[in-house]
Write a structure and sequence with these properties.
The protein has 16 helices and 16 strands. A hairpin with a 4-residue loop joins strand 13 and strand 14. It binds zinc ion.
């Protein structure tokens, strides 16, 4: 039978704020356990939460970038359940009145065509704490757990998609797109290793052509694009095999075991929580006046898709270049700064995609903001190439030296003697020397082995340390041999 895969995603993104959603504690990652807590985020009796305005502002930016409708009035609810990392016994989230609804994102489907993926809702909520399971001598093995509440009350948005995704690739595309937008907006650092972005996938299969959905399984906490694709692909196989063997898919929550590449059952629907949501009596409704939304709109940065289009149309770059350069806001900004100083977009793009990205991708490389080769360095170097001061070949060496030392290209060229050999007498001398050193080859060439021309040119280039212009060398050698 021909089966169709149906996927809906719930993505949790941590918002980039200095302080937590309902208190003034720091959100910095990696601090000593329980060093960033107060009565509010610990949920101590009598402590009152106060909503962080920045959280709403960030969420409004997301609304504008994902075409969502903003509710003029939304409300926080208590989601009641008991878990050791949630000492107050409920999570503050939004429930029946989320702040954003009915948006969409455009991704590429597997055939490369644009496809719209609906966003059902986006709501604000607090994160819970984290359980640590110490091992080793003195720690009691796995006999006890420790609770770190630094993450408790850290602001999150949950982005719930429509079940519009049809393949593992589409699903990871969607999360990539979402991540790119959030990072461009400056509302999330997008760091999946630190849990700033993680996805739950609702996966089901149905016979192609059938309108009703199959029973779905939810796979929790996928924190890399690769795991997301692997988990969905595994789940598709598992469900199809089960159905074809006459079995039934049961609605349950599963976890992805990345070491084994499989999903395993965590809890079935029967054990699922009844959260008994009710409006949080301690928090006022969230009211978004039109003026606030307009102000956010005015400050909205250019979004990645729009920037890609502009890079193609405004700078005449191929789609491939535009796509690569716009993969981060920093890289795109770098490009524009370099082009402002050296008006040859394609040359700038070539050097960025080649030498610059190669250096940046090396292990231990600094982030682009602290790269030793700045847009000013790159533009100045391209200027030297354009003026004919250095050959394109020597420019590679100039680039490496700039990267190693942070020196400007003029200084590198002077120190390393990389200026192009322009005076004809020294070039002539080099040609003479090469011919004199290879009499047998000269004779062979004159006897008809014209392929040897390349050999002589190569020798001259080596002798001039690549500083000569190959076309000029070619001409000189030919004249000497044939003259
Ligand atoms: Zn706190």
């Amino acid at each position: 039978m021909d089966w169709e895969l149906v996927i809906g995603l719930e993505v949790h993104a941590q918002l980039l704020t200095a302080t937590k959603i309902f208190c003034g504690c720091s959100t910095a990652f990696g601090a000593e356990p329980n060093s960033q807590v107060c009565p509010v985020c610990l949920g101590l009796p009598g402590a009152l939460p106060v909503l962080n305005r920045q959280v709403v502002e960030h969420t409004l930016k997301v609304a504008l970038a994902t075409h969502c409708t903003v509710a003029p009035r939304s409300r926080f609810a208590r989601k009641n359940y008991f878990y050791p990392d949630l000492p107050k016994g409920y999570q503050i989230s939004q429930y029946e009145l989320p702040i954003l609804e009915h948006g969409f994102l455009t991704v590429e489907d597997d055939a490369g065509n644009p496809k719209r993926i609906g966003i059902t809702r986006i709501h604000m909520e607090e994160d819970a704490g984290k359980l640590l399971h110490p091992e080793g001598p003195g720690a009691g093995g796995r006999e006890h757990s420790l609770v770190d509440l630094n993450r408790a009350c850290v602001p999150l948005i949950e982005i719930v998609s429509e079940p519009d995704l049809r393949s593992p690739k589409e699903a990871s595309q969607y999360v990539r797109k979402l991540r790119e937008i959030l990072v461009y907006l400056g509302v999330c650092d997008g760091n999946m290793n630190e849990g700033s972005l993680r996805a739950d996938a609702n996966v089901s299969v149905r016979p192609r052509g059938q309108a009703a959905f199959g029973t779905r399984a939810e796979i929790k906490n996928l924190n890399s694009f690769r795991f997301l694709e692997q988990a969905i692909a595994y789940e598709r196989r598992r469900q199809i095999e089960l159905l074809e063997d006459g079995g039934k898919v049961i609605q349950e929550t599963r976890l992805f075991d990345s070491a084994r590449g499989i999903t395993v059952s965590m809890r079935s629907k029967e054990e699922a929580h009844d959260y008994r949501y009710f409006p949080d009596p301690d928090l006022l409704p969230v009211v978004v006046e039109p003026a606030w939304l307009e102000a956010v709109q005015r400050d909205l940065p250019e979004l990645p898709d729009a920037r890609r289009r502009r890079f193609q149309e405004g700078y005449g770059l191929p789609a491939y270049d535009a796509d690569l350069l716009c993969q981060s806001r920093e890289l795109a900004d770098y490009f524009e700064a370099a082009v402002a100083a050296h008006d040859d977009p394609k040359a700038v793009s070539n050097w960025m995609m080649g030498s610059l990205l190669r250096e940046l991708n090396k292990e231990g490389a600094p982030p682009l903001a602290r790269a030793p080769v700045t847009p000013r360095h790159l533009a100045a170097m391209l200027g030297l190439v354009k003026q004919g001061v250095v050959s394109a070949n020597a420019a590679k060496e100039v680039f490496e030296e700039m990267w190693a030392t942070g020196k400007m290209p003029e200084a590198v060229v002077a120190e390393k003697g990389l200026a192009r050999l322009t005076d004809t007498s020294s070039l002539e001398a080099a040609v003479e020397e090469v011919l004199a050193a290879n009499p047998a080859e000269v004779q062979a060439y004159r006897g008809g082995k014209s392929k040897l021309l390349g050999f002589f040119v190569g020798q001259v280039m080596r002798r001039t340390q690549g500083k000569a212009d190959p076309a000029q060398v070619n001409e000189q050698v030919r004249r000497k041999l044939e003259g």
